[in-house]
Amino acid sequence: DLIYDCVGIEETISQAIQIARKGIRIMVIGVPEERIKVDLSLIQDRELEIVGSLMYVREDFKAAIDFIQKEKLKVKPLVTHHFKLKDVDKAFHLITEEKKEVLKVLIDVSD
């Protein structure tokens, strides 16, 4: 089992640690803006594995948005599949089971 924290704030990381069953891996994807305090005794007791992932920082996202808005970067050809939020299970199945046919998947959260 795996828990993803894509927010990167103390509250969500602590919540992930509190709800995790024994032996779970927690992937911290969100980029914290400040130091985060965690309950080390709970991590040890439940034998949790916490893994950090930092590919980009906020400035990178701002630059990417600027490129897209100025049409210096064409992103539409990169999106190979579209799903409504209600079909997110189908999207996850696609990206985990049929990987070679998928470049990028867009989840439409609008109504």
From TrEMBL:
GO terms for molecular function: metal ion binding; oxidoreductase activity. Gene3D superfamilies: Medium-chain alcohol dehydrogenases, catalytic domain, NAD(P)-binding Rossmann-like Domain. InterPro entries: ADH-like_C (IPR013149), NAD(P)-bd_dom_sf (IPR036291). It holds the Pfam family ADH_zinc_N. Keywords: Metal-binding, Oxidoreductase, Zinc. Its cofactor is Zn(2+). The keyword Coiled coil does not apply. Coiled coil: none annotated. Residues 1-69 form the Alcohol dehydrogenase-like C-terminal domain. Belongs to the zinc-containing alcohol dehydrogenase family. PANTHER family: (R,R)-BUTANEDIOL DEHYDROGENASE-RELATED (PTHR43161:SF23), SORBITOL DEHYDROGENASE (PTHR43161). This is Alcohol dehydrogenase-like C-terminal domain-containing protein.
